[in-house]
Amino acid sequence: MVYVKEIENYLSEILPGLGVNKQRELTRLIYEIAKRDKKTPPEILPTEKNLNFERAKKILLQKRYPRAFGIAPKNAFYLPKLELDPSQRADLTVRPFYPKQVYIESAVQDTPLAARARQMFPKAHFEIIEKKQLVGSENFSRRTETLLIHKEQYDFVKPCPCSQGSACCGYNLINLGFGCRFECEYCFLQQYQNLHAILLPANVQDFLTKIDGVNWRKGPFDRPRIGSGEFTDSLVFDELTRYTQDIVPFFRARAHLQFEFKTTSTCIDGLLRAGGAENVVVSWSVNAPQFIEQVEHFTPDLTARLQAAAEVARAGYRLGFHFDPVVPFDGWKEAYTQAAQQIAQSVSVDKVAWISVGLLRFSRELKKAVENRFPENTILDGEFLLEFDGKMRYPQALREEVYAYFVPLLRKLFPHTHVYICMEDPAVVKPYL
Ligand code: SF4
To answer: Of 31, 138, 395, 410, which sits 20 to 30 A from 203 (CA to CA)?
Structure first.
């Protein structure tokens, strides 16, 4: 554990009289190096004759960004003030999803979803409210204590917003829910979700009535793709929501479209009950097993995900896999090769409609959220630079190296599958189109 006070005291000792901004930048650099390399401030920045701010910053940038220093522009190094708040630390105690408080909008109080919530959580406190309001905990970690069942009024279908300036795959979204019970250290919801509760709409039929007549984008795919997993995991709450029971038959009758359930879970009972459909793709977020274990807390391991995938494929669904986020840690080539091979051995490769690959990227705000919620994380130890879309990304040369290795490998293992790169600089994606 790195103590910020220790770094500040050391800097005051070796570089007395530093201004606030200079102190802030050096503190952050030492903090990040100390966390990554497990070294003390004097080991990272030994005192030397005539040491000044410029020299200290250069030494530290070289150590923090050995690959990018001297190549990346100076303004690509993002060095915000360290604002660590121990009260934000993620609670990783394993517990079932059982909200303490359930709010139900009066308009949907007599729906099957509301009835199931009462049946599944008899010990919860239920309250009928007139309309969606700010409920939930101050603390993101306690979001699963509150469930809000509501009637969605406006936000039904929309094009995927992608990332500004990225190559677009023409995806379309219906937002069936907000919030997740897993704790992936990289999850953007940590910074994005301002209502710390699980939100589930009870009017899935209203979403489906909006589908016909839309002029859907289809990108490079044979049919438009519509998915529900932007702000939640598509299946993790399906035992409660039973959205699968409405969605699967609806799309089975519309062969010109395809629907994607995107999940990290193994909650497939609803899919099996609904029967298969060729144009319904069930896709799993996948990663190297050691990454799943260290970073994707509470989620099933790769083997369990693949067993679920094999089962839904046997039931008649097609499959998708998202290697996202790929993190080029030491030994990444072997680890990701083995994960890809494990997929190819576990499921029928002809059933795999698409596989996407995307390296870890995140907003500046998310960096601070991860630092606070997972202070011992290793995912932020990489060399992240402010990139073309304002997000933090690995240096372009490293991203290109990963894609150059992994995309051809996946295309070889899955010859009939559409393998594509997600949310990237169009120049990086071009060789793989
Ligand atoms: S499964 Fe997806 S939505 Fe859930 S915590 Fe992980 S990244 Fe976030």
So the answer is: 138
